[in-house]
Automatic annotation (TrEMBL):
GO terms for molecular function: methyltransferase activity. InterPro entries: Methyltransf_25, Methyltransf_Superfamily, SAM-dependent_MTases_sf. Signal peptide: none annotated. This is Methyltransferase domain-containing protein. Residues 60-154 form the Methyltransferase domain. It comes from the Bacteria.
Length: 241
């Protein structure tokens, strides 16, 4: 694998998507992002309940932590900041994460090697990371880093899009194949709008209807089944043998 291939691709893409210390994925006013946040929070609670590690014994590495939202979830579920470490490639997001979460350790990451001694963590969290990585070789390189960083019995919590992001290629991510060296504990395909109340969707239909735009009304109605039934994300908990 060419040195820094993963690093350069992600950093370049996100210089446009989320430059510097901006917060592009705020769920306020963003229905898709709200659905995602609710779904990942639910999936994490399920994964923690199924694991064999008590909360007080968890040592969590949030790989690809962004501005720290995915790390903060663990505090909401009972962990203390000293149990958490976040890594990300982008200096801007690391600086914002430090400002927002001064009690949590956040560090820059070069994409080549997880910069900690082996077995420093017993839980590695990767949320919406692999769908942004271009190329199967690079994705497998990250999985190998995760494998080396965990002790036997350590867990990986994975939550991501089912399909690779448009800027990183096409096709499914296939997490079950990526993490085939691990034992599968739990797998959960998430429907697109599982965690958005139905009444909100119907209010939107009503608003379009009252607008008198028949073409938009028809398009909105036809899109509803796909929005509720399409599997858009996958949650996975695996354990190192």
């Amino acid at each position: 694998m060419p040195k820094n291939a993963y690093t350069s691709q992600i950093v370049t893409d996100y210089e446009t998507l989320e430059p510097g210390e901006t917060d592009s994925w705020n769920p306020l006013g963003n229905e898709y992002e709200l659905a995602y946040r609710l779904a990942v929070f639910y999936a994490l609670t399920q994964a923690l309940e199924m694991s064999q590690i008590s909360l007080r014994d968890l040592k969590v590495l949030d790989l690809g932590c962004g501005n720290g939202r995915s790390t903060r979830m663990y505090i909401d579920l009972g962990l203390s900041p000293r149990q958490l470490t976040g890594l990300d490639l982008r200096p801007g997001t690391i600086e914002l994460a430090k400002k927002l979460n001064p009690g949590i350790s956040y560090l820059a990451y070069d994409g080549e090697t997880i910069p900690f001694p082996s077995h420093s963590f017993n839980w590695i969290s990767v949320t919406t990371v692999f769908s942004s990585i271009k190329g199967e070789e690079c994705r497998r390189h990250i999985v190998e880093q995760i494998y080396q960083a965990l002790p036997p019995g350590g867990y990986v919590f994975y939550f991501d899009l089912r399909l690779i992001n448009w800027f990183a290629g096409i096709g499914p991510v296939r997490p079950l194949q990526l993490f085939s060296k691990f034992d599968r504990v739990w797998y959960y395909p998430v429907k697109h709008m599982d965690f958005i109340p139905l009444d909100k969707q119907f209010r939107k239909v009503s608003q379009v209807f009252r607008s008198g735009d028949i073409k938009q009304f028809r398009s909105t109605i036809l899109s509803l089944p796909a929005r509720f039934l399409q599997f858009s994300h996958e949650a996975l908990l695996v354990q190192k043998r």
